[in-house]
Amino acid sequence: MKNYYITTPIYYPSANAHLGHCYSTIAADVMARYKRLKGFNVMFSTGTDEHGQKIENCAKKAGVSPKHYVDEIVLNFKKLWQILDISYDVFIRTTDDYHVKAVQKIFTKLYELGKIYKGKYSGWYCVPCESFFTETQLKEGKCPDCGREVKKQDEEAYFFKLSEYQDKILDLLENNPEFLEPESRRNEMINFVKEGLQDLCVSRSSFNWGIPVEFDKSHVVYVWIDALTNYINLLGYPYETENFKKFWPADVHVMGKEIVRFHSVIWPAILMALGLPVPKKIYAHGWILFGDGEKMSKSKGNVVDPFVLCERYGSDALRYFLLREIPFGSDGFFSDEAFLKRLNSDLANDLGNLLSRSTALVEKNFNSTLISERFSDENDKNLIDIASSLAKNCEKYIEKMKFSNYLSEIWKFVSECNKYMEVCAPWNLAKDENQKPRLATILYNVLESLRIVSILVAPVMPKIAKEIQNQLGLKDSDCTWESSKKWGVLEENVKINRSNPLFARLDIEKEIKILENINKKDDSGAKISIEDFAKVNLIIAKVVDCEPIKKSRKLLKLTINDGKTNRTVVSGISQYYSPEELINHNVILVENLNPAKLCGVESNGMILAAQSDGRIKVIFVDDIVAGSKIS
Ligand code: MSP
After folding, report:
1. Ligand 1 pocket: which of 16, 22, 49 to mutate (most atoms <8 Å of CB)?
2. pTM of the predicted model, to two decimals?
3. Is the pLDDT of residue 58 over 60?
4. Using one digit for the tens of pLDDT, what is the confidence trace for 332-341?
5. Is 256 exposed, middle or buried, given 0-12, 13-18 or 19+ CB atoms closer than 10 A?
6. What domains appear along the chain, each with residue ranges and CATH number?
7. Which atom of ligand 1 is nearest to the CA of 259?
8. Cβ(13) to ligand 1 under 6 A?
9. CB 39: neighbour CB atoms within 10 A?
10. What mean pLDDT do residues 420-447 have?
11. What CA–CA distance (Å, rounded) separates 408 from 168?
């Protein structure tokens, strides 16, 4: 079996995970899932880069130890990856014992080999970026990466002889076009290396939160030797473990463009010094920008919380959007509107509707089981031809990590299927008993097309792929990657299990307002008066009955007793609670909300729940009697 090793950057847990972190991680996850489907033995790693002055400062501000500080945030990252179905094999933390020991060994080895020496460093230091800069690198006297103030710093430090590797690195970049992609980044790095490489400061003595240098405890290993070596340490380095033999060199390191220099210049030089092969590929994607081309910031009100998006629209929608909207490698924009529009058009309309219309016709006209007697005509050939070559066409894009082209190719086919439905108009044939064989053929062709689509979308939308496959009554063996290249795998008499729509169509304007309000609420600066708060009537109420709302994947219909009468309240918590878990419990009810219709059911009030540990938890108050007022 062939091996495949893919990594994400290890993220700084200085603050909670955000959409930018999701981007690299989702992309790497898609590749890992794709390669697994192709039969590779995959190692997919991610993790957190926990040392450094910035984290030390954040912890100080929060009044906790650095370890305590990062522990909390690492939980947040892990929760988000769970919600986003990130199928990593290893999550490495640079505070993990095995990593600490390996870094110490690597540092000592490089020192003993004469690749690290002691010197004096003087430079402009940017605390948030943990980077020293030379005078010429500064932009208008400020940090060239983040634009903040820098300070002159002078201290004894260890240096890595990066300058020794200038020719080798240049050769690597110039003669291996596949090593660094996209091309634009490669050219940038070639120019950078040509300007000359300076030795690199690899230890610090001005802060403590780092891995102590084994032979000189007054120094801690400074960022890049600590961070970059995670990629080999998690495989067991410096020991010759099975994993190390199987997976090194990595097939691809995925990252944002701002850390390409470290990965394509410093990292290969460290590996060369250790006598190890360099990774096969570095792939640098662009940045996700917000609104007016800025990165996210609370004060600008353009914060996008991935937890909120996943909670409201499903993690697959976010995975799809990020990879479809922005060509991988370029910068691109995130806006709620663009996200919601794609959700409606590509997911609810094009894909969701195709499944819903076709399965509805099978359910209604064939009692959910297509007859095998069929009749083909000319229109079918075109569809079958495209379907049969689709996977092969798509593969060339995903192999090159061109996710947007990959998805757009699939969606062209989905449009083709919708056109086929329009042209064949099976709903008209359904009126004539004699047309049943033709009707069966059309529906078979659409369902078989959807089978192929479900396999191809699986790396990007694992939940939706499973859902389609369940609705089509498919077995695992019908959903292998190889079977996406074959036509006619769906069994003749398959029994389908029609279910909820894949995606609900959204009222975009309404959703944008809701998202804006959620963001505003998050803004801890906004205060309200006691009079405003007093307008909300909160009371304790008892859940006396509860059932799912059939048309919805999220909503539960609760019958609640507010101490006087029963009322109906609709709540979007069915992902987290079964009706039995709510019945007979007391909850907090917002009693005086305007009634609202959700999936055809009128809701009179709202029960309170909290976001905790990456899920929704209803606030139960069983020891207070129903009808009690909260004030
Ligand atoms: N700890 C280093 C990486 C060490 S890897 C050996 C680091 N961490 S980070 O938390 O700052 O994460 C940076 C990575 O997050 C970027 O390289 C990119 O992968 C992702 N992104 C963070 N913000 C982003 C955007 N706004 N857009 C796209 N990705 C960005 O650097």
Report:
1. 49
2. 0.84
3. yes
4. 999 999 999 9
5. middle
6. 3-307 (3.40.50.620), 336-495 (1.10.730.10), 530-630 (2.40.50.140)
7. 17
8. no
9. 13
10. 94
11. 39
